[in-house]
Structures are given as C-alpha cells and as structure tokens.
Fold:
Amino acid sequence: MTKPIVTISDDALSNIRDLLVENEMEDYGLYIGIRGGGCSGYSYQLEFIETPSDEDLVYKYEGVSVFVGPLKREYLSGTVIDYKDTLMEAGFKILNPNAKRACGCGESFDIHQDEPPGAGAF
Structure:
C-alpha cells in the first residue's frame, strides 16, 4: 500500500469514530475532497458517505475508512486532518502544506499564490 495522501490525527480519528457511532453510521467513512469555489478558489469537502466511488482512494485508520476524492487530489498531498476542542475553538482543522493562501472564513484556499482568487478554479 502506498503512503496515504491525507493523515488523520489521533484527536480527529477519535472524533470521527464518535460521530459515526452517535449517528448510527458505523459502516460509513469520511470523504475528503476538493471542489471549486469559495473566496480563494477551492474549498474542502468533508462528509460521511457509505460507499466510495471507483475513483476514490480508500484508506483505513484504525478501523475508520477515509475516502479521498479524485478531483485535484494532488492538492491534498501531505494534508493533516486534526481536531481541536479548546476554549477558543472547536472542530476539524485542515492543515494543508500546499495551500498558499486561505480565506478568512477558513473554508477556502488557493494553491496559486500569484493568481487572483478563483483563477485556478474549475
């Protein structure tokens, strides 16, 4: 098996597992993908799905399935999905070393530092 494109931290993995159990979705996995849009050109797509497509990469992390979508997946290479639960913030954090610019909303990013927002979108 090749090295996974995306790494899931222990905190994120624990939270994903809890969410799957709480929502009675134990047979589902976490889908991670990229889509065009957002203030900076691309946005992340995170959702629980039951069955991956034939084009998705499938990884197992301690019994939790993670599916990485095919569209622009090279932009996710080296990404870490983490989970924070502090006084100041709570939720999943996506640490993408390929993102050159992020929007203030934290939900969109751009890979091309010298292009205007949206220029690299599909």
Q: What stands out?
A: The beta strands are 6-8, 29-36, 42-49, 57-61, 64-68, 79-85, 90-95, 101-102, 108-110. The chain is about 10% helix and 40% strand. The longest helix spans residues 10-22. The first strand starts at residue 6 and ends at 8.
